[in-house]
Amino acid sequence: MKRNITGLTFLISLFLACSVYGAGTIPRHDLSVSFDMSENLIRGVSHITLPGDKEIRIYTHDLTVSSVTLNGSPLKGAAVGRFISTDGKGSLEITFEGIFRGIQEEGGLENAGIASGNVISDKGIFLTGGWYPSIEGKAFYRLKALLPEGYSAISEADAITEKDTPYGREYSFDFPYPVREINFIAGKYNIVKDTFRGIDIYGYFFPQDASLAETYIKHTKKYIGSYENLLTPYPFKRFSIVENFLPTGYSMPTFTLLGREVVRLPFIVETSLGHEILHQWFGNYVYVDYDKGNWVEGLTTYLSDHLYEEQEGSGWKYRKKILTDYESYVSPGKEFPLRAFTSRVDFASRTIGYGKGAMVFHMLKNIAGETAFYEALKDLVRARALHEASWEDIKTVFEKQTGKDLAWFFGQWLDRRGVISITMKDPKVVFSGGANKVSFDIVQNGQPYIFNLPVRLRSDSGESVELLHIEKQEETFEITAEYDPVEIVLDEDYDLMRELPEAEYPPVVSRLLGDEKRLIVVPEKDRERYESLVAVFQGEGFVLKEEGEVKNEDIISSSLLILGFDGPLVKRLFGSLQRPRQGFTFMVRENPLNTNKVIALAHGDSQQEVDSVSGKIHHYGKYSFLRFVGGMNVEKTTDLSDRGIRAVLYEPLTVIRIEKTDKLRDITGLIADVPVIYVGERHTNYEDHKVQLEVIMSLHKQGRRFAIGMEMFQRPFQHVLDGYIAGTIDEKEFLKDTEYFERWKFDYNLYKEIIEFAKAENIPVIALNLRSEIIDTVSKGGIDALTEEEKKELPEDMDMTDEDYRERLRKIFLQHEQSGSRDFGNFVQSQILWDETMAHTINQYLGDNPGSQIVVLAGTGHIVYDSGIPQRVFRLNKKEYVTLVPYAAGLDDSVGTYVFFAEPQSPPPSMKIGVVLAKKDGRVQVERISHGSVAEEIGLKEGDILLSMDGWEIGDIADARIFMVGKKEGDTVQIRISRKKFLFGEKEYEFTATLR
């Protein structure tokens, strides 16, 4: 009667000499298997030759064991889960079966290429662990496999033989090296063979991909030849490229297993193939001591993917990508020391093990020198061939080759979390001792590292590079410059594993994937088009939100993937974007509300275009822009960012040649045909307003048809402006009904001449601005603080991406005392709303009045460098414009089209009676009287209630200011007030005042 033993672990006692490998000191495992593809079944017999009395453990996993014999006899003396040999030597035979119906891919995008479980099916066989009774530790393996007709098989082997039998095709695999496990793959392959330097090279590809074999074999020869020159001879007798029906990417001794979708990617032969071939030396010949840390992925990354870029002169780009990935994926909660890396389980662990590991070898090469670096690696291969190697073994060979104690280096890079974080402080140039001296401080943020810092000094005449040794938290350096230096750059080629400051950190796909808080925003229309993309990113932990549900706080706190290019949210952040070209487009931009985050935009012409790339985006982590057509990538770019930590040492001084300057009257003819003319102002500088008036009058004299757009008036009051220009209301009503003094507050006499000229010549005046209540609300609480009705007043599309403008606003923000209690992000949004409303109003006027012009009067800050209003209007209508700004805005060549120099002028005097007013209990009260003023002379007192002036009712403080507009010295005014009686009640009085 047969006894089934499931999940059995055998402990066999035998003595094993471990000093050398040989048939007598290590188990030999002869394995024979056959398959029933329709039943997903493997049947097998294991013959294990036990070499001595050392205890050995054999795992049977989830297999069904039907018999176990030792030297031909059933094994006796069994304990639960294990057997102890009394003899400890001989032949152990295990008969087993297993059913493998499915497989599970691990972790979605983060673990693409990794799968767990095994499968036996009509598509093929994938067996990579737990498919036979396995010995703990290494063994010599020989495998025979019987397969149905039409299938070809691959396993670890220096030689494969095959023969036909009545029961199918039998494959025999001979691999004369000790390994911990073997793998077995089978499929209906087309097989192509070639040879190179005595090595047999095979391509196992499915019929539909058979044309790829020639390219893969060609590149395999190139890689093997290159690594034989760099390292040692290829360690085995054959190498095979095997296509898998599962999306894997593995390297086993003598072959690599690449998924069907992977082998079709055009860049795989230029990158990943070489990486897998290099594993034949490191990982498959020199083994990894996983208990002491996986060093092999960092080394293979450095000597494959990175090396290929280095050979093309772009090694610095690859290293920058590593640092970008580290910033993107490795959050404090996911960070661990490099020595703790064993295998990748997510983006963060991959970045540490592969990326940081590669950078450690790069820094090690820079310490050792290139020759010693490769000699040390050769020593490692010779010393640890077919044995496990650890970081300590790597340290040993490098110390031997360099003659240096490297304990400090391996200690800080293997056992510490984090990376170098440095800033440059106070860079300056001083002429001393007959030469220019550049001095600066290097500050390490956090626990100091020891490293050599490359410093490049640039001038117009040449450049020089210094290598500075850094050890302390803060150190001061001085470098003598051969030329007049204009710029200093730290670590321009990314030779150090360090943090990237914002200026070096481009918006790329990896930043989206790596953020801890991520949203995917689905559109109201065409949402079914993006279902596959939504499924992929939801699987990565993205939170799904409807477009209408996204709040301002969501944008500020998250990185977003927005589906579609023309939804309200896209327009709100980026303005009207150009419709993408054919296919599927994926674009990553900095989040304009929080530059530590990113926003990605995805657009597909059809569901088929989206489906064809949904699972591929993660392959393109270093790019900012991607376009695919029919699933094939046709465009990929990365946004520009700084290269190295940079500081400008000298800014060229602007000098104006006076004889070359123009007069304002000269340029008004040149700009007469330009659709939009911006004339900036300092609000309280009367001379700036005179310049504005001169431009307006000149255009009028030339017969131009135009309007005057004014920042000073808000859109809801356009009808009041129209009434005043048309003469249907008087000036007092105009100022009162536009609420000028409550909303703008500056002396109206500064603008009076402009308004009066427009009225006299019937020139339209356009109120450009948004209601101040909305701007104030957003400044304090962001757009989310607005009511739904208020949000209807906002422009449909806005561009919030101008970083230079943002930095200029930051300086303004910090100058205000109250800024400490406000949020800068909200302040920026309020200013952009201000600008965008004015831009949309200008655009609307031009659209409603074809062939007309508009002269825009606004504060200089809204006009300089084209970034406040001008570029926003241009975004909307692409119409030509010019800008005129006062010299106080600056004199660099991009501040404006023209810079004007106006002599200071005093504005027309504004008459005052010398009181400070306050509104209390709904009435206007005299709060303070100035000494020697008209008010004091006529007998006004503090506490008096101001009722009217020449019959003009004073219901608000603004009414008093309105009344005084246009008054001249010597004018008399009848002032009626109410004053409290001595005991009870009030009494009205009337005074006559002569203004002065």
Give an account of the 3D structure.
- It is built from 27 helices and 53 strands.
- With about 1000 residues, the chain is an alpha+beta fold.
- It has 7 domains: about 1-185, Immunoglobulin-like (Sandwich), CATH 2.60.40; about 190-280, Orthogonal Bundle (Neutral Protease, domain 2), CATH 1.10.390; about 285-415, Neutral Protease, domain 2 (Orthogonal Bundle); about 420-500, Immunoglobulin-like (Sandwich), CATH 2.60.40.1840; about 510-635, Chitobiase, domain 2, CATH 3.30.379; about 675-900, Rossmann fold, CATH 3.40.50.11550; about 915-995, PDZ domain (Pdz3 Domain).
- The strands form 13 sheets. Strands 1, 3, 4, 6, 7, 10, 16, 18 and 19 form a 9-stranded mixed β-sheet that branches. Strands 35-34-36-38-37-39-40 form a 7-stranded mixed β-sheet.
- The model is unreliable at about 1-25 and about 75-85 (pLDDT under 50).
Shape: elongated
Q: Give me the CATH architecture of the largest domain, please.
A: 3-Layer(aba) Sandwich
**Any idea of the CATH class of the largest domain?**
Alpha Beta
How many runs of DSSP E, i.e. beta strands?
53
The major β-sheet equals: 9 strands, mixed
* Integer-rounded radius of gyration: 39 Å
Beta-strand percent range: 25-35%
Spans of at least 5 consecutive residues whose pLDDT stays below 50 are 1-23, 77-86
What is the fold's blueprint, element by element?
Blueprint: E1 5-6, E2 9-14, E3 28-36, E4 41-50, E5 53-59, E6 64-70, E7 73-74, E8 78-79, E9 82-83, E10 90-99, E11 103-105, E12 115-117, E13 119-121, E14 124-127, E15 134-135, E16 139-147, E17 152-155, E18 159-165, E19 168-179, E20 184-187, E21 190-196, E22 199-205, H1 212-230, E23 238-244, E24 249-252, E25 255-259, H2 260-263, H3 272-278, E26 287-288, H4 296-311, H5 315-329, H6 347-368, H7 370-384, E27 388-389, H8 391-402, H9 407-414, E28 422-432, E29 435-444, E30 451-459, E31 463-470, E32 474-481, E33 485-490, H10 509-514, E34 518-522, H11 531-539, E35 543-546, H12 552-557, E36 559-563, H13 568-574, E37 584-590, E38 598-604, H14 607-611, E39 625-629, E40 632-637, E41 645-648, H15 664-670, E42 676-681, H16 686-701, E43 706-714, H17 718-726, H18 731-737, H19 740-743, H20 749-761, E44 765-769, H21 772-781, H22 788-791, H23 803-815, H24 824-848, E45 853-859, H25 870-877, E46 881-886, E47 898-900, E48 915-920, E49 923-929, H26 934-938, E50 945-949, E51 952-953, H27 957-964, E52 972-980, E53 986-994
Parallel strand pairs: 3-16, 22-23, 23-25, 26-27, 34-35, 34-36, 36-38, 42-45, 42-46, 43-44, 43-45, 46-47
Antiparallel strand pairs: 1-6, 2-5, 3-4, 4-10, 5-15, 6-7, 6-10, 8-9, 11-12, 13-14, 14-20, 16-19, 17-20, 18-19, 21-22, 24-25, 28-29, 29-32, 30-31, 30-33, 33-41, 37-38, 37-39, 39-40, 48-49, 50-51, 50-52, 52-53
Helix pairs in contact: 1-3, 3-4, 4-5, 4-6, 5-6, 6-7, 7-8, 15-16, 16-20, 17-18, 21-24, 23-24, 24-25
